[in-house]
Structure formats: C-alpha cells, structure tokens
Design goal:
Length: about 375
C-alpha cells in the first residue's frame, strides 16, 4: 500500500499507483460550494459546527480534516489569502475587493461576479501608473504559511499542493471587465500588454514569496488561468502564442527556479483546451485540470492517447450533468469510465470537473470517492 503522498506523486510522474488518487479540496478549483459542503457534513454525520468560507467570491467552504479523512482524500491544499479578499462590504450585499473591483452575488448559491471593473474603458499609461497596486510583500500573505506546510508534510502523509491566487489573465479580466479585456486582446495590444505585464510583475513577486515561505514542504504547485471556452480556445493559436504563452512561460520558469526542475505543475483551465495542451507541455506544465469532459474535444480516451506520456490529468468527473443530476449508479459509471481512460500506467488524479456546486447531492460526492477507492 502506498501512502497518500506516494500515490499522488506516482500519478503525477506517470507511474502506476496502488489505486487512483482522489482530490477534493486540494486546490481552489477542486473544492466544494459552501451549501453543498454543509449538506455533505450532515450526510456524513459530522459534528455540527460553523463552516468557514475558503473563498467568498467562489462561495467555497474551508474543508475540515475529519471530512477529508472520511472521504479518504489524498491531497491537502495550501490556499493562501490573496489580494482578492474583501476590502469593503456594500449595503446591498456586494463587496469591493483589494484591487477595487466590485463583486455582486446573483440570486442562487454560486459565484460572485464582477459588477464594476476598476479600470474600464480607455486605459492610459498615467492611469495605470497611478493605480494603487496591492503589495506582494504584504506579510499577511505568508504569515503562518511555512508552519502549515511543514505540519502537513511532516505530520501527515498527504500530498501538499500550493495554490497561489487566481492567475494573471483572470485578474486582468476582473479589472477591465471580460468584454473589454477580449477587445484589448484582439484590437488594442498596447493596452493589453501594459496591464498584463503590470499584473504579471505583482503576481510573480507574490507567488515567489509564497513558494519561498513553504520551502521544501510542498509536493506540487497549482496555477489557475482559463484560456478556453466551452467550444474552443478563447483566441486563435497565433494570438495565444504571441500574447499569452510568453507570459505563462515566465510564470512556469519562476516556478521551476524557485521550487526545483522536478516540481509537478498543475495548470487549471476550464473549457475546450485540448488543442492548447502541446503549448502547455512546451512551457513546462505537467498536469492539466479540470479536464472539462462536457466541452468540445475533451474526450478523455483521446487526450490520454495523444498526450498521456507527457501530461497528467486531474479532474474529469462531469459536473455539468452527472454529479448534480445523475444517480449514484450514474456516478459510479462515470468514475469507472474516467479511471479506465486516464489511469493507464498512472497519470491521473480523480476529481470533479470544477468545484462541486450547491445542487450536487452529498450521496453523489460520497459515491464518487468510494467508487474511486475500489479501483
């Protein structure tokens, strides 16, 4: 029998594990909605106690150790606070984050969304220069981080994944507004590059501080920045390789420099990202998350056949249909299918595609974990 850490590292390094490893809560993109988590705790008969938010914006819960142990989860995430934390609450329930972006919560149980970007419209060099950037050296980002990482690494046998805050291009989208950012990419490269490089400078400095704080006590590093829609990449390959890829390369180079050449790097992008996998491999990414199987061209058998020698996969259990609306038997069949496709000679960590949302019934979450443990 492998330890939890050995099992995850075997998968990430394309060696057959004793069973497929399971992740729930090991990254900020593979965790659980607050309401779904409370339902899960009741289902598991966990003692009644207040649930803490892990991310207000994503409405995700901070998972407790006894819940993770009941599900026999192999990963533990280190998810530091970032500059997206609340700076000011507004009377209508919305809030302004530390970047100055206003977030509002639509009716329902899910994400907050940008209601008012902080840098809309024309963006001059003077505006960008005078913008009050968060401080990447703020000690509150790293307070206690080394102790947490060391405790997880030395006192447990779980795989420890460091998850710096949401990536550079997402942050640009939040600041500009999604539509305006896409217009920048396509038609205003000067504005796009000026903002992207400014955010990149902040982000690299912050992530470097987080990696140095954790030292030798992490087993993988996560990076989250969507580059695809449901039906294809956000932009054509030439534009991606000119505007996006070189900046991602700088981030991956820093990860390798600070954490070591052999450190597994998990890249999160939703959507139909299959055609971009060769570019991700080229910049040093070693694992793709979340493997959004309902998106175009994300057939898990094909992805494994074409890229499985160089790219591991984390995710792939469908969250658009099977987990929220399927029966436990549907969930078992889905787990068996993804394991059969992706776990050949290792290279697969089983998880849900995206964070488990409010409508996912607890019995389906438990079934997903239990079925994986049988395989």
């Amino acid at each position: 029998m492998m330890t939890h850490r050995e099992r995850v590292l075997a998968a990430l390094n394309h060696r057959p594990p004793d069973r497929v490893p399971v992740d729930i809560g090991g990254t900020f993109a593979s965790t659980i909605n607050f309401r779904a988590y409370e339902n899960l705790k009741r289902y598991l008969r966990i003692p009644d106690r207040p649930t803490e938010f892990d991310s207000r914006r994503s409405a995700t819960a901070k998972m407790e150790e006894d819940v993770l142990q009941k599900l026999d989860v192999d990963c533990r995430g280190i998810i530091p606070r970032g500059a997206s934390v609340t700076a000011r609450d507004l009377p209508d329930g919305s809030y302004v984050d530390a970047w100055g972006v206003t977030w509002a919560h639509p009716q329902g149980e899910g994400h907050y969304y940008v209601r008012a970007p902080v840098l809309p419209g024309d963006l001059s060099a003077a505006t960008l220069k005078s913008y009050p950037w968060p401080d990447p050296d703020d000690p509150s980002y790293t307070d206690g981080l080394r102790e947490t990482a060391r405790s997880l690494h030395e006192d447990t046998d779980y795989a420890v994944i460091l998850c710096p805050p949401v990536g550079v291009f997402h942050q640009c989208q939040f600041m500009r507004g999604y539509e305006q950012w896409l217009m920048d990419v396509a038609a205003d490269p000067t504005t796009f590059e000026s903002l992207a490089d400014a955010v990149l400078e902040y982000w690299v400095a912050l992530a470097r501080n987080l990696i140095r704080a954790c030292g030798p006590y992490i087993d993988a590093i996560f990076y989250g920045d969507d580059i695809a829609f449901q039906n294809g990449p956000m932009m054509g390959p030439a534009l991606f390789r000119r505007q996006i890829k070189p900046r991602l390369q700088q981030i991956m180079d820093m990860y390798r420099q600070e954490a070591g050449a052999d450190m597994p790097i998990i890249y999160h992008t939703c959507g139909a990202a299959g055609s971009l996998i060769p570019d991700l491999i080229d910049i040093g990414v070693t694992c793709l998350n979340p493997v959004q199987v309902a998106a175009t061209g994300m057939d898990t058998a094909v992805l494994k056949r074409e890229y499985g020698q160089e790219m591991a996969f984390l995710g792939a259990v469908d969250t658009q249909w099977v987990l929220p609306f399927g029966t436990p038997d549907d969930v078992r069949a889905e787990v068996r299918r993804r394991v059969a496709d992706l776990n050949v000679d290792g290279g697969y960590i089983l998880a849900a595609v995206h964070n488990l949302q409010a409508e996912v019934p607890p019995q389906n979450i438990v079934t997903m974990a239990e079925e994986a443990h049988r395989l």
